[in-house]
Amino acid sequence: MAGKITIFDTTLRDGEQSPGYSMNSAEKMHFASQLERLKVDVLEAGFPSSSKGDFESVQMIAKKVRNVEVAALARTSKEDIDAAWGAIKEAAHPRLHIFIATSDIHLQHKLRLNRDQVVARAVEAVKYAKQFTNNIEFSAEDGSRTDRDFLCRIFEAAILAGATTVNLPDTVGYAIPSEFVDLITYIKGNTPNIGKAILSVHCHNDLGLATANTLAAVNAGAQQVEVTVNGIGERAGNTSLEELVMALHTRKDYLPYFTTINTKEIYPSSHLLAMITGIPLQPNKAIVGSNAFAHEAGIHQDGVLKNETTYEIMEPATIGLKANRLVMGKHSGRHAFKERLRGFGYDLSDREIDNLFQRFKELADKRKEIVDEDLEVLIAEEILRVPDIYKLQYLNVISGTATVPTATVQLETGKRVQQDAGFGIGPIDATFNTIAKMTGTRSKLLHFSIDSLTGGTDAQGNVIVRLEEDGIQTLGKGTDPDIIVASAKAYINGLNRLEHLKQK
Ligand SMILES: [Zn+2]
Predict the structure, then answer these.
(1) 393 φ, ψ to 5°?
(2) How far is the CA of 113 from the centre of ligand 1 (A)?
(3) How far does the centroid of ligand 1 lie from the alpha carbon of residue 156, in Å?
(4) What pTM does this model have?
(5) Cα–Cα distance between 241 and 451 in angstroms, integer?
(6) Given pLDDT bands bounded at 50, 70 and 90, which one contains residue 18?
């Protein structure tokens, strides 16, 4: 009989804490709803003691998500556990996730504790957590570099204290698949009460082995896997949810396991995350990259046309990839528009749909054809919106070979409308300089990228900027058929998001 593998998603915790992937609470909420549609078993919503903002977004997710377990991370201190429980206590199915490092390297250099003290802390923490819930996960941080017998000892103690899941993290992405199998086998053979808990693994991709190690662990008896959508996470990332799930799904003949993931939501989840974070996927990313189902070589194309199974091991529809692109235009009605949005799977309110339809009409006036990519950008901008402090009213830019690039900008700040002009070495520089002067921002522009959403010279320019001020980083996005206007929108969106984050 096939064994069920519990999917523990940590996109909103491990993924979100990696540089460049931070999300605001509205974005986290949207993504949590998508994880619910994807049908993960557990979603780790955050690390509530790390900041007030994190506490609030975990709390918001815990109140809204009903069909998935919601986990919160905590160190072994009472304050951490209190914060984590405070954030998830209203969840339908809460889980406390407590961790402490167990490797000698971490004990000596980070914790400055001996092994007995670490075991005592773990036991005390699990017992303390037990008064709140019976659903407790214990993680041995840097587990793969921990002495094997000590690992068995601390797992045994944690289970005895009440842990219902014990997690073995390869925190630094150091393990090799065959070695990891050995370790899992050893733990199963030498932890007397291991059968009373679910054994979990959490792998990092520093050597590109996260999925391989996780799959090897499953084969050796691990029953829960910790993964992230698109494999995002600290440094080189975590095990990618889509790779692990589709490996189990595609090779059922060899791997007698199953998950309850709705695979048709894999592509929408991946896409939504890339949109929210503004970080595109590499084209050759397994399962969800834009080239993952593209057949370029003539001999392959010929084979696939005759029969897909010649070169395709998975059907694109299995992961929710739509084959046909629907084109819409200015004569498309509200009903067709709404139906199309529903097709993307996003959970949008009537007010959001009204706003989107308005913006769709404005765009359709400028362009003949509107394709899925355009619509998705409209949706992303709508759900990424923060209350605007600065609004662009007017922009006029003069540039060319025989003139000093000059930008005239009109900005609305609250009820005040101000206008100014400035110069730069190019039209975008002139625009940004003028906006920076008017808003008095001290932010640094870390990154600027521009690409077109679709082919054709009338395609929309899609600009992403990354800004930093006082250690706070954010991204800004802007889209417009005019790339200078798109750049101004992205910069102003970034400034609005910075203000929003500073107020937290
Ligand atoms: Zn991790």
Answers:
(1) -100, -40
(2) 22
(3) 22
(4) 0.86
(5) 28
(6) confident
